[in-house]
Amino acid sequence: MYSESNKQSDFLDQDKEYVGFATLPNQVHRKTVKKGFTFTLIVAGESGLGKSTLINSLFLTDLYKDRKVLNAEERISRTVAIIKHTVGIEEKGVKLRLTIIDTPGFGDAVNNTESWRHIDDYIDQQFEQYFRDESGLNRRNIQDNRVHCCLYFISPFGHGLRPLDVDCMRALHEKVNIIPVLAKADSLTPAEVCRKKMKIREEIKQFGINIYQFPECDSDEDEDFKTQEQILKNSIPFAVIGSNVQVESKGRKFRGRVYPWGVVEVENPAHSDFLLLRNMLVRTHMQDLKDVTREIHYENYRAQCIQNMTRMVVLERKRRWADFPLPLAVADTEKERLIYEKDEEVCFSSFIHSFIHSST
């Protein structure tokens, strides 16, 4: 009879020269899958460009069941709102907490000056909350609500970017990963789509807008992967079509739109960049979007906060020292230096402490 001790001995004898750290990726995988993933996406653009339909199509869910469609008068009088939708999605045992930030009212008013301010403030608020949480005493179970990506919808009915588009993207491009989307691509011919994409790319470069940059491929990457990355780069802005309706044509069922002159398929690469956008957001670049948010956008915000706090500490120290004139006697330079450094350290620590407690 094969005992448990024999099994254990066989397990220890196998691969004696094998240390085992090659299993670290498997350990990380198990831990992260158990913990689950989060992703926060904000959608911006004027009403009527199919933002809600596209989001439902991307994630195969219905986030806008109770949405009320407003008439023209109500839309004009409405201010920009921030509406948060959170849904849990599970696929093959992997859990994702998806948060969609909608911005109804954006671009609908007669005067849209700084209508992007609400979006800008919301992104800053999430950075501020995360900064407070990670600076607090209890850093366990910090909820990450930082915005990882902004899908900016561009109207297909203009000649390129509108002034509002330029102002909004320039206000946000240092704080969030912007991915421009050319909405309602089925309203344009293929030649018009190509011309409009080229025009928008030129204007993005002309106005100095920093959209999300796809990471450069390593030299040892697979050729197919390199080709796919180049296709994604050339597809900016993504010309998309959204539909939640199942259409039947030639014995096939698919999501699309029926017109008198034919049928448009949402997931047909010849009709739209929908598949490219979905694969980029979900399958290939979701983690990179989160990494760029953490390592660049949030770090810039964090460094600015610390710099501002340090400046306030220095000003406070100068004010305090100005209230006490220097003694006439010659003081010990080294001793004075140590006292000065200690005083600055205590002052800065007390400021951080008061900042954290005042915000809780």
TrEMBL record:
<feature type="site" description="Important for dimerization">
    <location>
        <position position="157"/>
    </location>
</feature>
<dbReference type="GO" id="GO:0005737">
    <property type="term" value="C:cytoplasm"/>
</dbReference>
<keyword id="KW-0963">Cytoplasm</keyword>
<dbReference type="InterPro" id="IPR030379">
    <property type="entry name" value="G_SEPTIN_dom"/>
</dbReference>
<dbReference type="InterPro" id="IPR027417">
    <property type="entry name" value="P-loop_NTPase"/>
</dbReference>
<keyword id="KW-0132">Cell division</keyword>
<keyword id="KW-0342">GTP-binding</keyword>
<keyword id="KW-0131">Cell cycle</keyword>
<dbReference type="GO" id="GO:0005525">
    <property type="term" value="F:GTP binding"/>
</dbReference>
<feature type="domain" description="Septin-type G">
    <location>
        <begin position="35"/>
        <end position="308"/>
    </location>
</feature>
<protein>
    <recommendedName>
        <fullName>Septin</fullName>
    </recommendedName>
</protein>
<comment type="similarity">
    <text>Belongs to the TRAFAC class TrmE-Era-EngA-EngB-Septin-like GTPase superfamily. Septin GTPase family.</text>
</comment>
<dbReference type="Pfam" id="PF00735">
    <property type="entry name" value="Septin"/>
</dbReference>
<dbReference type="InterPro" id="IPR016491">
    <property type="entry name" value="Septin"/>
</dbReference>
<dbReference type="GO" id="GO:0051301">
    <property type="term" value="P:cell division"/>
</dbReference>
<keyword id="KW-0547">Nucleotide-binding</keyword>
